[in-house]
Amino acid sequence: MMIQDERNDVDAAIALSLTDNRAPSLDELLRELNSQVNGEEVSIFNVNRDDVIDGTLRGLKRRSFNPFKRVSAVFSSSICAEAEGAVDEGGPTREFFRLLNQAVCRLPIWFGPDDSKMLTLKSTGVEDRLYYYVGQMIAMSLIHGGGGPHFLSETMFKLLVSGPESLEATIDHIQSEEIKGTIMKISDSQDINTLQDAVAGALILLDAAGVSPVVRTLSDKERIVKEMVYHFAFYSLVLPLRQFRDGMGLGSVLKKVIENPELFKPLFMSYTAKLTAAKVQEIIPIARSQPTGSNRSNLEERLIPYWLDFLLDLEEGDEEITLEDVLIFTTGADKEPPLGFSPKPSVEFQHDSDNPLPMANTCGNILKLPVSHENYEMFKKFLIMGIQCAGGFGFA
């Protein structure tokens, strides 16, 4: 009944998209999705970083699961038997959705490069309703502020929004090189005899696609090729796509995507904006708390250029860590979420500690820099060491 209601929402959304000229912003749409979350109740996901999908599926299948309860992610380290902590004030959730979107991209239900994926038919995936649960995972991420998948191909995004009927299939949409070769052999036939031989060699595929093998004239090859391409490119995806869209219907996510495809497209397709030192400074500004002229203030004045040069060195791309690693260390996310961070991230200083390593609180989005280093080389060395060795959110 729930799935049928979601399909009705999708049908209504398609009709509305043809007549409604409203232009809401992406921010407004995402906040509307997020407003469905009840912060007083919690859905707990017990996951291991090495297999996030497994723990997520258990959580989704739990009888008490409610997609509108606040998500609390509890990570267990692959090398430590103790959980990293059940209290989730935001940092673990951001890391959970970051890792989940990455893990979803690696599932065998997709084919194509990492930044341009298409669904592919896996019978076990249909039987286990994996396509449905993957749709739910992506919808959950958008509802709870975790961001989009950023790996769908443009064709896949169009399939999600409009269905296969609206697309012109090409041979490049077919995954199997063997099937492509068979279709190309038919397409390249230059006379009736060659065409009949090519069709005779493809009878099993023609039967599977429901395509008539009757050849009377050379022009029949156009019909045969068109029907075969459509079947193996799109028709074989009918069941996986239906499950995927049903899962995406969670919380009216698919409805809003259909109504506003251009706004949502950047969240589903490849994320190309390069993180820069200036952007990191904007996302994580320096918080000064010491009186001007004090010893601590003077110490901060000496360390701030170290920090800014550290970001510029990372931007060069020659270090062992990246600017994305700094963001992950501080917030649990590798990019700024569509709705921004809450609370606002900040850089602070460890005045009351001789710890040479950086510290982070991903729940508060606070990065604390060490103040014990006398020169830039040591400052940089220990920042890289701390960020590189941090197993997850929290303290280095």
- Count of helical stretches: 18
Radius of gyration, CA atoms, in whole angstroms: 26 Å
Percent in strands: 5-15%
Helix fraction by DSSP (H/I, runs of at least 4): 40-55%
Q: How would you characterize this protein structure?
A:
- It is a single chain.
- The protein has a three-stranded mixed beta sheet, covered by helices on one side. A two-stranded parallel ribbon has the order 1-2. Strands 3-4 form a two-stranded antiparallel sheet.
- The model is unreliable at 78-87 (pLDDT under 50).
- α4 runs antiparallel to α6.
- β1, α3 and β2 (69-76) form a beta-alpha-beta unit.
- The chain has 18 helices and seven strands.
- It is 50% helix and 9% strand.
- The radius of gyration is 26 Å and the shape is elongated.
- With 396 residues, the protein is mainly α.
- It has helices at 2-19, 26-34, 52-61, 91-105, 123-127, 130-143, 154-162, 177-187, 192-200, 203-209, 220-233, 238-248, 253-259, 261-268, 277-283, 295-316, 323-331, 376-389; strands at 38-48, 69-76, 110-111, 118-119, 346-349, 359-361, 366-369.
